[in-house]
């Protein structure tokens, strides 16, 4: 889908090249993250793809076509580009900003408006935002719009240069999650630049580590954490992460209990109590016939309503915090600790219940860490888990 062949970029004749002899192949649908210290050539690499810079030597192919043989303006309109400085146009409404490339491609107004409405929905912002101006939005909201603008004409390839770098950690975390989900649904090829290893590990199918204009290592997050190519990579990853790499790459589904105790809304409270007693649990999840998660009920709620109510649907709580099965264990754990949850249900994209992570599951992992074979969590996290027991 995207191929670099012996690509060199020199900004000056006799200085060290910004990018030297880069060879890399990126497949369709891959999420590739470039990472490396400041000045190592990441931005230059991206800019050569959409011809904001020209390579001094070598070739770059997008879908088998040499970018140097394409009209730069057309090329740029066919590739999504998101940068840190958002770059929304201040005197245009959010809707007009999203539709910018559509207008350039001469889409008619209805098509542009329909597309903008469709897009704003996927980031959970109200349609009324389309009529606002960028300065009326928060930083996180503006950055969401920047991402939507890049998606607007549905380009197969999207370049993102430190797009979330200026956001606070919580907004960044949310946007990373949203974006990873989006990318999976849309099957886009993404080339993403960051200098934040946590971000790379979280998002990447493949990480490309660069130093001084050269690729030092290419691999999955797991490959790189387990087998860093050299000392530079080790230092860059950080010794902490090497020792404790597991929760960075372990997904919730790998450690969850796959047999949560469930009832349906039509179960009687009496039967539910029986079930809870047998399983020795003080809370059960409520699912529908398709096993979709609908809520939960715990023993205090049942106790409060036992005399007046007969069925679970009368007593249950419908607001239930859950995580997707692909979530990273580390993030899930942090969230559970932050919220003080006793457990968290694990669901699929379709909200089907597939498991549960409990404090006991976490405690088992922590003990494995201390006495078992390196399922490592950080010490402060171990303390946090223990303090809630
Ligand atoms: P990164 O994005 O990894 O921080 P860049 O690609 O921006 O790195 O920069 C790589 C090298 O090229 C740096 O040494 C930088 O100073 C130099 N460089 C970047 N852009 C230009 C430019 N327009 N003119 C001259 N040198 C540049
Ligand atoms: Mg840069």
Give a brief outline of the structure.
By secondary structure, the chain is an alpha/beta fold. The chain has helices at about 40-50, 70-75, 95-100, 100-105, 110-120, 140-150, 170-185, 195-205, 220-225, 230-235, 240-245, 245-250, 250-255, 270-280, 300-305, 310-315, 330-340, 360-370, 380-385; strands spanning about 1-10, 20-25, 30-35, 55-60, 65, 80-85, 155-160, 190-195, 205-210, 215-220, 260-265, 285, 295-300, 325, 345, 355-360.
Describe this entry's structure for a reader.
- The protein has a 6-stranded mixed beta sheet, with helices on both faces. A 4-stranded antiparallel beta sheet has the order 2-1-4-5, covered by helices on one side.
- It is 40% helix and 21% strand.
- It has 389 residues and is α/β, with parallel strands linked by helices.
- The chain has helices at residues 42-49, 72-77, 94-98, 100-104, 109-122, 139-151, 169-186, 197-203, 221-226, 231-237, 239-243, 246-249, 252-255, 269-279, 299-305, 312-315, 329-339, 359-371, 379-387; strands spanning 2-9, 19-26, 31-35, 57-62, 65-66, 79-83, 157-161, 189-194, 206-211, 214-219, 262-263, 283-287, 293-298, 323-324, 343-347, 353-358.
- The chain is built from 19 helices and 16 strands.
- The protein has 2 domains: 2-240, P-loop containing nucleotide triphosphate hydrolases (Rossmann fold, 3-Layer(aba) Sandwich), CATH 3.40.50; 252-371, CBS-domain (Roll).
- The longest helix has 18 residues, at 169-186.
- The N and C termini lie far apart (51 Å).
- The chain binds adenosine-5'-diphosphate (ADP) and magnesium ion.
- Residues 11, 18, 36, 38-44 line the site of adenosine-5'-diphosphate (ADP).
């Amino acid at each position: 889908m995207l191929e670099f062949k012996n690509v060199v970029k020199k900004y000056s004749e006799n200085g060290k090249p910004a990018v030297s002899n880069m060879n890399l192949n990126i497949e369709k649908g891959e999420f590739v993250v470039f990472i490396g210290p400041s000045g190592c050539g990441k931005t230059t690499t991206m800019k050569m793809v959409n011809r904001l810079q020209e390579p001094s030597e070598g070739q770059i192919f997008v879908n088998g076509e040499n970018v140097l043989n394409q009209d730069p303006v057309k090329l740029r309109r066919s590739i999504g580009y998101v940068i840190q400085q958002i770059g929304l146009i201040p005197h245009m409404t959010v809707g007009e900003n999203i539709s910018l490339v559509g207008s350039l491609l001469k889409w008619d107004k209805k098509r542009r408006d329909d597309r903008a409405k469709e897009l704003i929905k996927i980031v959970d912002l109200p349609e009324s935002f389309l009529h606002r101006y960028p300065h009326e939005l928060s930083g996180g909201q503006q950055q969401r719009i920047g991402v939507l603008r890049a998606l607007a004409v549905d380009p197969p390839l999207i370049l993102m240069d430190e797009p979330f770098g200026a956001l606070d950690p919580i907004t960044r975390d949310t946007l990373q999650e949203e974006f990873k989900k989006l990318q999976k649904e849309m099957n886009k090829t993404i080339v993403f630049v960051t200098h934040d290893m946590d971000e790379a590990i979280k998002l990447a199918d493949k990480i490309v580590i660069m130093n001084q204009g050269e690729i030092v290592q290419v691999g999955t997050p797991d490959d790189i954490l387990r087998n860093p190519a050299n000392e530079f990579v080790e230092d860059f990853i950080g010794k902490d992460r090497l020792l404790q790499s597991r929760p960075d790459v372990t997904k919730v589904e790998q450690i969850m209990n796959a047999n949560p105790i469930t009832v349906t809304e039509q179960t009687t409270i009496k039967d539910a109590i029986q079930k809870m007693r047998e399983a020795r649990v003080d809370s059960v999840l409520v699912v529908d016939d398709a096993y979709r998660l609908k809520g939960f009920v715990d023993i205090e709620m049942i106790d409060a309503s036992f005399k007046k109510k007969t069925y679970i649907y009368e007593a249950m709580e419908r607001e239930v915090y859950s995580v997707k099965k692909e979530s990273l264990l580390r993030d899930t754990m942090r969230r559970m600790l932050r919220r003080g949850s006793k457990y968290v249900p694990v669901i699929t994209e379709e909200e089907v219940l597939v498991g549960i992570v409990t404090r006991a599951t976490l405690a088992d992992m922590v003990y494995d860490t201390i006495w078992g074979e390196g399922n490592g969590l950080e010490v402060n996290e171990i303390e946090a888990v223990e303090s809630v027991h």
